[in-house]
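Input chain follows. Return structure tokens only.
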Amino acid sequence: MKKRLIISVSLITLLIAFIWLMSEKSTSHSEPQEALFSIDYDLSLIPSYKINDKALFFFIKNTNNLGAVYVQKGILGWKAGMLTWSPMDVERAYEKLNGYQIHGDNLIYGLIKQGNDRIVEIDGDRASMLNLAMLPPSEVEKLRLEGLYIWYFESDKPLKGEEIKLFNKDTGEELDRLEL
């Protein structure tokens, strides 16, 4: 009786492990981009970084929505996390801090014109800048991204109540300010 119970529990455990493994394998991919395209093939991906087992991508969805997603590498490959996005300004008027988006609790980002001449700071820490001219010229033109940069900041602690400031890089003049 005890032997049958051990065999039954072992077989059930193996079956559950097999089902989990097959499910995990079907949602894992060899490259982070593949994981994202398996969710939505029409995304225009903007890679930020790929460090060890973590990658950050921004994306344009339906030509007028900017979003962000983390992709993690697991045992069987890369898996996409939660995609979040919101509409971009139709006029692409990003001379000032016209808004920002938060992904999860620790990532804040937005768009800015003339990012090579601007500095965005969150509570005194400098945000990173991604020049959207890195995309193929046909994509930049189609999506009307000429002269735009994505600024983003990742924090170890949840973002709440921080101050976002925009500065002229050459003069140090404060151009705009927002509070989370």
